[in-house]
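ENCODED BACKBONE
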Amino acid sequence: MLALQRLLAKRFGVIPVEIVALISQAPLEDIERWFDRAIDAKVLPDVFQD
């Protein structure tokens, strides 16, 4: 969870509170999927689109 937040902050700057809350309540499989997407995403919303 913290690794995803660090990656997002490093790539996209300040993470909105809503995204932090979403991450903190997400199951591990979602966090892993988002982490993989965050590596290549052009913008933050790309990480969370299904």
Observations:
- The chain has one domain: 2-48.
- The chain is about 75% helix and 0% strand.
- The radius of gyration is 10 Å.
